[in-house]
Amino acid sequence: DRFHDLDVVGLDLDGLVPTDERTLGFGAAPLLRHTEAIELEACAGPGLYVVELIGGGLTSRAVLEKGSLHLVERIGAAGHMFRVLDADRRPVQGAVVRFGGRDFEAGEGGEILVPYTEDPGRKALLVRAGGVASLRRFRHLGERYALDAAVHATTESLLAGAEARIAVRPRLTLNGQPVDARLLEDPRLVVTSTDRSGATASKTVQDLDLTEPGVLGATVRIPDRCVSFTVTFEGTVRGLVAGEDVSVAAEATTIRVGTIADGSPHQTLLHRDVRGYRLEVRGRNGAPVVDRVL
User: Fold this and answer.
1) CA geometry: angle at 162 spanning 159 and 163, to 5°?
2) Residues 6 or more apart from 91 whose CB is under 8 A from it?
3) Tens of pLDDT along the chain (294 residues)?
């Protein structure tokens, strides 16, 4: 399994018996440089060939690869998903990937799964199919989970002392690829409120329902004298490589309390009708504001 360190060009072949050997004679003078075409009938089939020419105390070696195998990779929820193609870029059935001392075979969909690692970096693997083997390299990734959440609260409900309905749309990714948000364990909202004096208080909302994809909701009571609060969506994911829980948290979203934030003369409202979406700008008294550049 040390094929990733193998230098075929510089490999010592002393003591090995060649599969094909011949003696060639040329009519040109020994001191005259000339070009010759050598037919290699023994290299007709697919494979990796080492062709060595010896003459006049000199050695010249060429490495020929015919019928090589190629990999098409995508990032999956459990690891790297490889599909093996032949030299004509056609899918190959029954291919095997040799990596880390193990053989990985294709599943029902024709893809080969190589799990993520705790030691990420550029690695080499050996692909075998139909008597052909090819060395290929890839960037072996670790498990990097990230959580994002879009948070929205109805403007009319953002009043101190009242209850506000908060909608959250979570998005969980693994190495940049979206995965099912239901992989989250112990999902929770951490709501931190700030009053007019600058004092803060935090509350955790648990028992969130993630069985249905899309948007989840939570009801939060806004304390008296509250001017703003931040909402952070958190949870844990069970790592497949180390078998340990990984904590993930989305970036906190700050929501102002009151019809219009303190110091702001205008408010922008998003509406939706049969024609699509539109933005309205209104002042503190609710009157429309015209000729406003957004």
Assistant:
1) 110
2) 83, 84, 85, 110
3) 555 555 666 777 777 888 888 888 888 887 788 888 888 888 887 777 888 888 878 888 888 877 788 999 999 888 999 999 988 899 998 899 999 889 999 988 889 999 999 899 999 999 998 878 888 999 999 999 999 988 888 777 777 788 888 888 889 999 988 888 888 888 888 989 888 888 898 888 887 765 456 778 788 888 888 888 889 999 899 888 888 888 999 998 888 886 544 456 677 788 888 888 888 888 766 788 887 776
pTM over cut 0.90: no
What 106-111 contacts at long range (C-beta under 8 Å, 24+ apart), as own/partner pairs, is 110/83, 111/81, 111/82, 111/83
